[in-house]
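Bug #77: duplicate submission created two jobs. Keeping one. Sequence:
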Amino acid sequence: MTRETVARLVDHTLLKPEATAADVAALCAEAGDLGAFSVCVSPSRLPIPPGVLSPAVKVATVCGFPSGAHHDAVKAAEAAASVEHGADEVDMVVDLGLVKAGEWAAVAAQIAAVRAAVPAPALLKVIIESAALTDEEIVGSCRAAEQAGADFVKTSTGFHPGGGASEHAVRLMAEAVGGRLGVKASGGIRTADAAVAMIRAGATRLGLSGTRAVLDGLPS
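Kept job's structure:
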């Protein structure tokens, strides 16, 4: 896998709470330089000011982040506001309490509420926090996301103490969605070898904060 090929799978990410507008501007400049697919920033950092981001780079943001413990209407409103402010993609955090309780209809209903608030062409990714789930819960979350009309399932916020992406979780998610949805691996991917392993396990998108270091480990 070449540097360019992997770069086009990357959501170049800055979600630190202390990130400033200047930090976001630097992220956007770096994304263009690296050839990343998108930047992913907090909703409060939208809209991206004109001229800061290359037209070739998409804008992603998060919703219900990082806990997922938000009311359906709050998540839907946050997602809709982000799209109004220029987001092309929204990464929403699933309600982990509902997942752990096995309340799959409620999980799907919440995802569907956000989907209705951000219809296509906006992309909706569902963060399932895979490191905190059993295999059965991972599969159930993926099925709920597909049922509700999501475009992607995503491993992690990167903020959960349980950890980030794993090859096992990515492989399980890829099998569950069977190519009908994308799979985003995010959280703790810091080397080229780790990034390639996630892609080989089935990831079709990567969430990276240390993008340059990962790409520097790949052949041109």
